[in-house]
Design goal:
The chain contains 13 helices and 15 strands. An 8-stranded parallel β-sheet has the order 10-9-8-5-4-13-12-11. A 3-stranded antiparallel β-sheet has the order 1-2-3, with no helix packed on it. The chain has a two-stranded antiparallel ribbon with strand order 6-7. The longest helix is centred in the last third of the chain and has 23 residues.
Length: 442
């Protein structure tokens, strides 16, 4: 989902010492947490004690930090770098992280790009705006202060904030014979523009922390491109080749951080038996392939997005929930049984612009997503977590695409998010690899 125009970070640090004996986490130890058991101020205190972050890694189909499980409850706020450019709006970045940290959210996905246009980070190929780069530095430093990790997306498949369309425009201006935005995936010179940008970002030294991006554990992962599609090649070969090439490029510069693609999660031609889980027939013809794409060397975890209200036409909230359950479970099963890696539901939300929207229906949807994650978490499964699209502080309505959740004015939704953070924190603190994942129903 891309916001502002047309469309729509770590688990609380594990503060208790991991038990040296084998532990069995029971279902009741998670399910027994009620809303009255949550001390929100204690979540914030625990979350902000200033522990040094460690790099997130994967082990099988789970995320780990220091050898301990790390299940994610997080959020998206795509515009952080843009507002950080102006000292008058920079406070909104700080507010976002403080409010998210206060309810135990641990990972934030945001844009580390703005290609051409207003407040562009990349003004032209190989030309970067230092003021905007310092704004990105600020975003990372503020996330670190609040013990929130970042998934940083490196460009956009859509036109918002430049993306692949802007790269193609630059190529045309340089005299290249380009006929489609999808030439972004195949033209060697245009690919060279993107590679140069990636290299510059990964080797950037943060002016606030003096840490090179590729060495900074505040960064959870890099994302190649937000919601890639290649409509000119339904076979998926063009996009697959691009993913393989760019994954190699990123890992050659930064082998320490995790890497993901940025996929919406549609099933493609490699698994026609899975087409039934797509929202419609069109989504299987957009040049992406959930299984094949994520099998590319260098890709560490899978992602999928979830927007039943946008994907399913002429449907009601009940249909949305049924589709979401099926969509999530199919991707969790495939992450575990086929890919052998975690899957993150990297965007999910419900638009206030939908004719069937209500706060209660949104809460029901979020609760269903969270319960599906927990059902996997209890057995040490591959659902690595989810990221709500999206969290806003007050006073940023002008950036809202309809999906914004303003915590200060959405108390019932805030309580659901807090409860999930509490449950995952309790799980992560009680179950370690010494348990050999003996997390079972007793």
């Amino acid at each position: 989902m891309f916001a502002f125009s047309s469309s729509p970070l770590q688990m609380s640090f594990l503060l208790a010492a991991i038990l040296t004996s084998l532990l069995t986490v029971t279902v009741s130890s998670i399910d027994g947490i009620g809303t009255t058991d949550i001390n929100y101020s204690s979540i914030q205190r625990d979350h902000q004690r200033g522990y040094e972050l460690e790099m997130v890694k994967t082990k099988g189909n789970q995320f780990v930090v220091g050898g301990k499980p790390f299940y994610v409850n997080g959020f998206n706020t795509y515009w952080l770098m843009i507002l950080a450019v102006d000292p008058l709006t920079r406070v909104k970045v700080t507010e976002t992280f403080k409010q998210a940290s206060a309810i135990g959210l641990t990972v934030c996905r945001t844009w580390a790009f703005n290609d051409g246009g207003w407040r562009a980070l990349q003004k032209a190929p190989f030309v970067y705006d230092e003021n905007v780069f310092q704004a990105l530095d600020f975003v990372i430093s503020e996330a670190k202060k609040n013990n929130i990790r970042l998934i940083l997306s490196l460009t956009n498949s859509m036109e918002g904030y430049g993306g692949k369309a802007q790269y193609v425009k630059w190529g045309k201006a340089a005299g290249l014979n380009l006929t489609s935005d999808d030439d972004f995936y195949t033209n060697p010179i245009v690919k060279g523009y993107y590679k140069a940008y990636v290299k510059t970002v990964l080797n950037r030294v943060n002016t606030f922390t003096n840490i090179t991006y590729k060495e900074d554990p505040t960064i959870f992962a890099w994302e190649l491109i937000n919601e890639p599609r290649c409509l000119s090649d339904p076979s998926g070969n063009k996009l697959q080749s691009w993913i393989e090439e760019m994954a190699f490029h990123v890992k050659s510069i930064d082998p320490k951080h995790l890497l993901e693609i940025g996929l919406e999660g549609f099933y493609g031609n490699s698994t026609p038996d899975r087409f039934q889980f797509n929202p419609d027939s069109y989504s299987g013809q957009v040049g992406t392939d959930f299984i094949r794409n994520h099998q590319a060397m260098g890709i560490d975890f899978a992602t999928t997005h979830l927007y039943p209200d946008a994907w399913l036409s002429n449907s009601n909230p009940e249909d949305h929930l049924e589709f979401a359950k099926s969509w999530m479970q199919s991707h969790i099963d495939d992450a575990e049984n086929v890919l052998g890696m975690p899957v993150v539901f990297a965007e999910f939300g419900m638009s206030a612009k939908d004719k069937n929207f209500s706060v209660s229906s949104r809460n029901q949807f979020i609760d269903m997503v969270y319960k599906t994650i927990l059902n996997s978490t209890r057995r040490g499964g591959g659902a690595g977590g989810c990221l709500l699209w999206q969290i806003f502080p007050e006073g940023t309505d002008f950036m809202d695409d309809g999906y914004a959740v303003v915590l200060k004015t959405s108390k019932s939704t805030e309580k659901i998010l807090s409860l999930q953070s509490k449950k995952l924190k309790k799980f992560n603190s009680k179950c370690s690899w010494r348990c050999n994942w003996t997390c079972r129903k007793n």
